[in-house]
Amino acid sequence: MSNKYRTHNCNELRKEHVDSDVVLSGWINKKRDHGNLLFIDLRDNYGITQCIIDKENLNFKEIEKIQLETVIRIEGKVVNRSNDTINNEIKTGEVEVGIKNFKVLGTCKELPLPVFSDQEYAEDIRLKYRFLDLRRKKIHENIILRSKVITFIRNEMNNLGFLEFQTPILTSSSPEGARDFLVPSRLNPGKFYALPQAPQQFKQLIMVSGFDKYFQIAPCFRDEDARSDRSPGEFYQLDLEMSFVEQEDVFNVVEKLLLNTFKKFSNKKILFEKFPKITYKDAMLKYGSDKPDLRNPLIINDITGIFLRDDVKFEIFKKLVKSGSMVRCILTKNTKDKPRSFFDNIDKWAKEQGTSGLAYFTFENEKELSGKGPVGKFFSKESLEEIMKLTGAEVGDSIFLACSKQKELEKITSLARDKIAQDLNLINNDVFAFCWIVDYPMFEIDDTNNKIEFSHNPFSMPQGNLENINFDKPLDILAYQYDIVCNGVELSSGAIRNHIPNLMYKLFSIAGYKKEVVDEKFSGMINALSYGAPPHGGIAPGIDRIVMLLADEKNIREVTMFPMNQNAQDLMMNAPSEVSEKQLKELDIYLKTKK
RNA sequence: GGGGGUGUAGCUCAGUUGGUUAGAGCGAUCGCCUGUCACGCGAUAGGUCGAGGGUUCGAGUCCCUUCACUCCCGCCA
Questions:
Q1: Is A473 exposed, middle or buried (CB count within 10 Å of its CB: 0-12, 13-18, 19+)?
Q2: Is the peptide bond between A501 and the residue preceding it cis, with omega within 30 degrees of 0?
Q3: Closest residue, CA to C1' of B30
Q4: Sequential DSSP letters for A494-557
Q5: Band of the pLDDT at A212, cuts 50, 70, 90?
Q6: 3-state secondary structure A26-69
Q7: pLDDT per residue over A58-83, tens digit each?
Q8: Which residue of A94, A128, A243, A358 pairs with A536 in a disulfide if CB–CB is 3.0 to 4.6 A?
């Protein structure tokens, strides 16, 4: 490509171009002004080319004064660099362009943040001037990576026989799940559309419509609070759904897709080529979480039984256990020589998390087996042997103990598992550890009001032979519901769907929804399922999180082009914003709070 | 809604026990410099110490209130 702005881009010129006349356009990345000799690093999307001019040139005085990040067009001749001035850091480093003529194409004011710098900047400035921030090397490359990953995934899905369809953005509000973003309808005063939290019902309807395999890089909207791995407002999923499949069929497709993607875009080793399957129940016990980081070798054990023994004198825990608490522990290998401060810091940290802290001791065998540390003396030799049997502990290992009710216990042991592994430097950052979490319960109980609720997706198929499901014990019903986790990040969530209307009504009734309510709120779905619905299932991996892992970033905004801040504001575009009285009137909306 | 962290020059930060006129690097402006690639050297400008209140002879520093950003909990079927 050659036009009035450029004959080459800023990453193209090599030795073979020496002596040719070229035109380059780009941003002034950096100037090095020697007074009578000036170097300009010209940058575009593709790379950097060093351009040079000296005082013999009539343009010298003028070009010397130009601000960094000004866009200029340069005419010049490609010249060789002498051996001692070759720059191997850049692709064009063997040559440079001797400037003959130049023109300013876009002027630049004094910069609110430097583009040429690896420093980190306050988030609000970066977001307000995102167009400048995006010029910076690391994030520029992240966004390009994101584009390439999406293209790759799209190709893979096409090759696997999936068809890409768009689904509506303006749809109806649904009672389950996250808060909806609402859009008022002008033509239907008093009524609202909702932005889709995910194309869940639509993708099932696509299956009912007979399309067999669907995918979409789908925008999803949820009005919930942000986290470092969770954008407020909107994010993207690789939404996919397949007809006439069992759970394993979905697993095979997604495992292959993720393996191919992660191998192509990262050099990190994949720890398990065949993703291990962990039941939800096991995950909550062994890792305290349904998104365990399997790079972390620490395992949680339940040793509640120990505290029923008469030869254990740890009265605080024993009393709590009698009133229904449990005791779980984390074992650290060969930590007998760690300083007291190591243990106390972890206990202190646990207290800062709002818990009663972590007790600990080390297994010792001086004269005979004993527990060393503040609570070690409470355990008899026999009880220590029993603990060693239960946990696989050996002399020289230490053990951290937490005692609490189940939910709180899971939370603190999960956090402690991460914290201890970090302190002991046990996590290998050069690997990806995938796993499936399977056998989610269909329902869970809400502590605050003792109400039975869907634990994940109300459209999931319960496990077991339909005649044998015991609906009287809803908390025991498992679902064909699964998650993929990688390095402790929840990557996707999916299920084999319930395509049987009567079973759907039954499950909704357990969660407290009458048939009429289901008919009204899920009319499209439930109606469609009554007209010959195929068995089907799918999953929806989060695109942003996949790219975040591939780019080795800890924050999702580093792989999002124009993210909102934590308060769901776009500081560059000033969204959300107030609207005119006229707009509100047309929508039949009256604001309660007025200035 | 709750908890933690941060807030000092355009940017990144330092600022001791409360004590004189609040500093550095980068950037900006001006000058010198013909082989740099984080060029070098010299000078100048640039501050509501997030905001408000309080304690004190004296507050960037201590106390209270508040705001912004961020991390976490809740929330995210």
A1: exposed
A2: no
A3: A65
A4: EEEB---HHHHHHHHHHTT--HHHHHHHTHHHHHHHTTTPPPEEEEEEBHHHHHHHHTT-SSGG
A5: very high
A6: EEEEEEEECCCEEEEEEECCCCEEEEEEECCCCCHHHHHCCCCC
A7: 999 999 999 999 999 999 999 999 99
A8: A243
Check if the beta carbon of residue A507 is closer than 8 Å to that of residue A498: yes
User: pLDDT band for position A595 (50/70/90)?
Assistant: very low
Beta carbon of A121 within 7 Å of strand B? Answer: yes
Query: Which residue is it, tokens 């962990």?
Result: A278
Distance CA A255, CA A430 (A): 20
Tokens for A33, please give them: 């002004």
At residue A40, φ and ψ (nearest 5 deg) are -125, 125
Judged by C1' against the alpha carbon of A444, the nearest nucleotide is B77
Alpha-carbon gap, residue A496 to A249, rounded angstroms = 10
**What are the Cα distances from residue A179, in Å, to A132, A194, A222, A518?**
33, 10, 6, 19
- Chain A residues 220 to 249 whose Cβ lies within 7 Å of strand B are 222, 224-230
Phi, psi of A411 (to 5 degrees): -65, -50
Q: How far is residue A290's CA from residue A435's CA, in Å, rounded to a whole number?
A: 10
A178 CB-to-strand B distance under 7 Å: yes
Query: What's the token pair of residue A513?
Result: 């929804």
Displacement of CA A547 from its chain's centroid (Å): 8
Distance A162 CA to B58 C1' (A): 75
Residue A593 — very low, low, confident or very high, per pLDDT cuts 50/70/90? low
Strand ranges across the sheet with A434-438:
A163-164, A213-222, A233-243, A536-541, A489-496, A481-486, A434-438, A277-279
Kindly determine whether the C-beta of residue A268 is less than 7 Å away from any atom of nucleic acid strand B.
Answer: no
pLDDT of amino acid A355:
77
Contact A478, A517 (CB under 8 A): no
Q: How many Å does it take to go from CA A125 to C1' B28?
A: 19
